Amino acid sequence: MIVILKQNPDKAQLDMLTKWLDDMGISVHTTVGHLQTILGLVGDTSKIDIDLIQALDIVEDVKRVQEPFKNANRKFHPDDTVVDVGGVKIGGGNFQVIAGPCSVESEEQICAVAKAVKASGATLLRGGAFKPRTSPYSFQGLREDGIRLLVEAKRETGLPIVTEIMDLSQLGLYDDVDMIQVGARNMQNFELLKELGHLRKPILLKRGLSSTLEELLMSAEYIMAGGNEQVVLCERGIRTFETYTRNTLDISAVPVLKDLSHLPVIVDPSHATGKHSLVPPTALAAVAAGADGLIIEVHNDPAHALCDGPQSLTPKNFERLMRSIDALRPYAYEREA
Amino acid sequence: MIVILKQNPDKAQLDMLTKWLDDMGISVHTTVGHLQTILGLVGDTSKIDIDLIQALDIVEDVKRVQEPFKNANRKFHPDDTVVDVGGVKIGGGNFQVIAGPCSVESEEQICAVAKAVKASGATLLRGGAFKPRTSPYSFQGLREDGIRLLVEAKRETGLPIVTEIMDLSQLGLYDDVDMIQVGARNMQNFELLKELGHLRKPILLKRGLSSTLEELLMSAEYIMAGGNEQVVLCERGIRTFETYTRNTLDISAVPVLKDLSHLPVIVDPSHATGKHSLVPPTALAAVAAGADGLIIEVHNDPAHALCDGPQSLTPKNFERLMRSIDALRPYAYEREA
Amino acid sequence: MIVILKQNPDKAQLDMLTKWLDDMGISVHTTVGHLQTILGLVGDTSKIDIDLIQALDIVEDVKRVQEPFKNANRKFHPDDTVVDVGGVKIGGGNFQVIAGPCSVESEEQICAVAKAVKASGATLLRGGAFKPRTSPYSFQGLREDGIRLLVEAKRETGLPIVTEIMDLSQLGLYDDVDMIQVGARNMQNFELLKELGHLRKPILLKRGLSSTLEELLMSAEYIMAGGNEQVVLCERGIRTFETYTRNTLDISAVPVLKDLSHLPVIVDPSHATGKHSLVPPTALAAVAAGADGLIIEVHNDPAHALCDGPQSLTPKNFERLMRSIDALRPYAYEREA
Amino acid sequence: MIVILKQNPDKAQLDMLTKWLDDMGISVHTTVGHLQTILGLVGDTSKIDIDLIQALDIVEDVKRVQEPFKNANRKFHPDDTVVDVGGVKIGGGNFQVIAGPCSVESEEQICAVAKAVKASGATLLRGGAFKPRTSPYSFQGLREDGIRLLVEAKRETGLPIVTEIMDLSQLGLYDDVDMIQVGARNMQNFELLKELGHLRKPILLKRGLSSTLEELLMSAEYIMAGGNEQVVLCERGIRTFETYTRNTLDISAVPVLKDLSHLPVIVDPSHATGKHSLVPPTALAAVAAGADGLIIEVHNDPAHALCDGPQSLTPKNFERLMRSIDALRPYAYEREA
Fold it and tell me: Using CB atoms within 10 A as the burial measure, which of B266, C307, D268, D279 is most buried?
């Protein structure tokens, strides 16, 4: 950490700061310049509250030079983490496709879609039971019943299931869910993250609409700090000024996250683009960039989906995409160790 | 609502759509152009799921022409709503300043700050008990104890109190809290919003970092749909590419929200800018633009605040700002009815 | 075009508007709703000034339903345009890699890089002669001399050359340049675009840092309206809140632009990411998404490049990337006609 | 400037770097940490090319601790600059309103508006002769004739005139123009900025749609480096995800720019909001925040303006706004020296 002092800092305050850092086991190296004095802080600065220092009268600016995350940091854990979801491995060379409808609507629907996506090669089933909707007047999901139907589909197909949690109070319903999804809007629901850190169940953590990659990793850190290291990161598009697509898929997030962290990284092209015609090209791009998996919306009848219809693929289009993915995968980018 | 059809739409699908809309009490007016056919939908379209229509094969695009919020909409409630917080009125010409520390740290601290801000003219006390922090290693607030200390400060000064809730499970602790704050990161925590809709207590709803004004109003709608109409909207800066300030204060949000809605609108210049030196000019700007109030961080010793120090004012600077606000207020913008 | 009127519009003004539209050959279909009246405008609305209508007292909002670009629009020109740059074809199934240094620095440098990239399979040579730099104190390019050296490198290697123009006054120097690049900062330099429209030379048009895809196509339209149809579009990253990468590569831009327009689309992974280690994964992603080409910075000695060093590949890394591209290309996304 | 080295940097490269810096008169202070070595660079680092250092293999990151602008920097010129435009002073306590139509349309129009705004208290006349329009099919301004008409309006009213230049080739036409405006899209047209630096005429420099405040100051630096110190900065709204307003007025830009620089700062509420009803509240906000002036669009007949009608005030509304500004001005924020 670098602390840049204002011109002519008050001597007494500077001594107090130096002593306080010293007490925390941080050593301070001072560089005196013409217009500024710079303090180089050496030691474990990840637990220093940057705001505390920035608040001091003598301080002009503070710059971090070390990532503030530890458990999620590849520097401390060079090897890829492999997350096991009901026997299906993600990461460390294991590529998986999670597929299913936006919302669970009925037993027929979820079981039909589950069978179709399994036949095309998907290895995990997704489906929304609790649905975050911008409007209180939109369909909010089948809730408890939705989870029950997912479990039924899992029983029929053997596919482990992934579904979103919206509130801590729902946690009791997720015993038979194989992987709990934290949605974009909940990426910084810190109370939820802490509680999920006490589980020993894989978590699919989606990037917030306007969250930086560092913030995403700090949210993973919340879960991991509780002891749960089974976290899969998911890029699902960020909010920008461009309105043609629902969000802007940040494709660089894939190699960046894999450089900074040992956690698996998957991509959600359905939510990133919001248009089914854009799912195949962006899904292939994610594979090429080195993603460890994809999560894709598939519906047997997109025209009648209760939500997010415009971005869902038909089973037939999904099958075609899976064949393209299989063909391209051997030529995807591989990170150098 | 306007539905733009693709060229040569399938007749059977078009008939199905028209019938479905008809069943919902919506009448359809058709305009046939050279390249496109346009359907004008007339009736109460606020409950139509736009995604459902967009998913149809024959549809190229759907455009809403009516705001999707009703309870929060000024068109249906032309008069300003006045929110009463423990006897203190906000909105409809009533201007209030909410002040206090970022975090409650101790009884001495919160009571000293409470007395100071009251003496300068603040009419409501704020203070964080549960603190959303990006890092799990940062101070997370005194939690239950923090609320207890706020209630103590209220007993000593008579100031009604405002504090943030981070999770539904904490709701039982808020009985003596006069106004519950929903933070930016929780603006789309829909389960929380629904539950707050069942209370009869004022809610301070902060705009999310990357939420549109329409989304903010839809979140207010979630609360109001449950029957709780005591909602105060708060602009607190949005996330943009500019990094000099912590966020970008969207000053236009004040007149826009007051045009679109009858709810009171306040501004948080402390979080919007992240720098105490920028609080006075932006606070005065918010008053000039017609805000119904301000929420400002004040700390008796900013250099030792446990969080958000850089953006807090000293009581002395707060006093000076309050005098400037008093002087400027009579010349602020007034919306024409 | 859809015009939404305010409640109870003034009859005389409405008649005036209808007559004015009628005179322009636009027919108007009216839908009267409870809260709003909607006018559907049918005819060639691309030349109607949307601002003019929006300014009318009786108008609440105007929504376009037709793209405002014509020459660049795939609806009117379904077949892919193939741009010929000194005998090298881009688009319509022809994939090309443009490579070379950020800045031309010396004859040795540009010729050495040209030979190296040609040996690896690049078919066009890039190199900056006039350099847009944020700071007046940074190296501004060799200017006239830079172009002279590029022409020399073309003579030695046979590679057609691509270089950026920064101002109309430089146009006389570009006679021997095969393709003129309009940089991101000049994407809306309309006087420059108009003049380039009078040439019969290929133009490489880069998307502005915060330009929408529609604005990019409107800038292409400026060039094409002058009669020059040889335009190649280039996605090079947009400005967002994320600061880890220099810009955010909008990978969806590739399929979206190819859907909306018949012009070739290439990607610049070097400027989009700003880090050479991110160039290979994002370049492969662009190929997978269906791009018609890439423009990549290559330097023989990145550590001594006079500008943009951090994002340049060494010839050795470029060679390795070209082999990966060759392997992946057959499995890239192909747009359905 | 701070240079953060990778773990175990190559000794030879490090020596080379240190020597190179030494030769430039920069002294280097080294702090060796467990995971990183940090170099503190002391001396005049404003002319060091940050990219050059970042490109070195041994370097992980470079952080600037000093602003890269000098002539525009308040640290080196503590006193406010006062810009004189044809006898009208802006800055250093002098507040001015520039008003006029978006486009000059006819002699009657420009003279009528000029007289009206002068009568209401505007001291400078604006009007577009060359108009940057997104579409080649929109009205492009009266060009040479527009400037002639502006000069005529100046002759009739005595108001100095301000108008935009779009290309260097037009410079010869601006002899009788009192202040040349550089529009948002040209803020980084560096060739134009350099040339304007050789003039001795005031320049109104508008912030680019997605330019940071530092970039705006660097563009001012381009002009000032040429010797022209008469630069007025203008905040006119930035591009964000919010679509309700045309742009997002960054009100904090006013106090930030005035802290960082000695140049006058004005605000353009018309382009920032794009809606005439939002001009009065945001104009008052800008005054309250301490702006040195405003630039406001006024049209005698907004319904027939040839461009940008929706954001123009009528002379009557402008008169009302000027009275509100006069009343509020004495209570605006004043920067402490």
Answer: D268
CB within 8 Å: B166 and A222: no
Whether residue D305 is predicted with pLDDT greater than 70 in this model: the reply is no
Question: What strand order describes the sheet that includes A59-63?
Answer: A27-32, A37-42, A2-5, A59-63
CA-nearest residue to C60 within chain B is: B65
Structure tokens at D21: 């810096």
Domains of chain D (ranges plus CATH)?
2-63 (3.30.70.1140), 83-331 (3.20.20.70)
Does position D208 have pLDDT exceeding 80, yes or no? yes
Find residues 65-104 of chain A whose CB sits inside 8 Å of chain D. Answer: 65-66, 75
What is each CA distance from B283 to A217, B249, B301, C289, D128, in whole angstroms?
34, 10, 21, 47, 34
- Output the CA torsion B179→B182→B183→B186 (10° steps): 170
**CA pair distance D28, D21, nearest whole angstrom:** 8
Sign of CA dihedral B219, B223, B229, B230: negative
Residue B23: Cβ within 10 Å count: 8
- Helix or strand run (H / E) with residue C54: helix C50-54
pLDDT tens-digit profile of D132-151?
A: 988 898 888 999 999 999 99
Residue numbers in B near A57 (CB within 8 A): 303
Q: Is the pLDDT of residue D307 over 60?
A: no
Task: Please enumerate in sequence order all residues whose Cβ is within 8 A of that of C52, keeping only pairs 6 or more positions apart, or say none.
Answer: D304, D305, D306, D307, D309
pLDDT number for residue A304: 59
A162 or C53, greater pLDDT: A162
CA distance D138 to chain C (A): 6
Residues 6+ apart with CB under 8 A from A301: none
Pair A238, A250: CB distance under 8 Å: yes
List CB contacts (< 8 A) between A167 and chain B. Answer: 167-168, 189, 191-192
How many CB pairs below 8 A link C and D? 129
**Burial of residue B12 (number of CB atoms within 10 Å: 0-12, 13-18, 19+):** exposed
Partner A contacted by C106 (CB < 8 A): no
From chain C, pick out residues whose CB is under 8 angstroms from the CB of A277.
Answer: 255, 259
Q: What is the mean pLDDT of chain C?
A: 91
Give me D318's structure tokens: 């402008």
ipTM for the whole predicted complex goes beyond 0.85: yes
Residue that has been written with the tokens 């974009």 in this structure: A184
Better pLDDT: C249 or A276: C249
More confident residue, A128 or B10: A128
Report the residue of chain D nearest A63, measured CA to CA: D63
Q: What are A220-229's pLDDT values in tens digits?
A: 999 999 999 9
Residues written for chain B: 337
Look at residue B311 in the predicted model and tell me its pLDDT. 81
Asked whether the beta carbons of residue B65 and residue C32 sit closer than 8 angstroms, the reply is: no
Start-end of H helices in chain B: 11-23, 50-54, 107-120, 144-157, 190-196, 213-225, 253-260, 269-273, 279-288, 315-328
Return the pLDDT at B43.
78
Question: What's the pLDDT tens digit per position in B246-298?
Answer: 999 999 999 999 999 999 999 999 999 999 999 999 999 999 999 999 999 99
- H, E, C per residue of C80-149: CCCEEECCEEEECCECEEEEECCECCCHHHHHHHHHHHHHHCCCEEECECCCCCCCCCCCCCCCHHHHHH
**B165 contacts B132 by C-beta, under 8 angstroms:** no
Chains meeting C at 3+ CB pairs closer than 8 A?
Answer: A, B, D
Which residue is it, tokens 């006898």? D87
Chain C: closest CA distance from residue D311 (Å):
8
Asked if B139 lies within 8 A of A209 by C-beta distance, the reply is no
Hey, are the CB atoms on C65 and B65 less than 8 Å from each other?
A: no
Question: Which residue in the block uniquely carries the two structure tokens 């194989």?
Answer: A178
Whether residue B191 contacts residue B221, with contact meaning beta carbons closer than 8 Å, is answered with no
Say how far apart CA C333 and CA C314 lie, in whole Å: 28
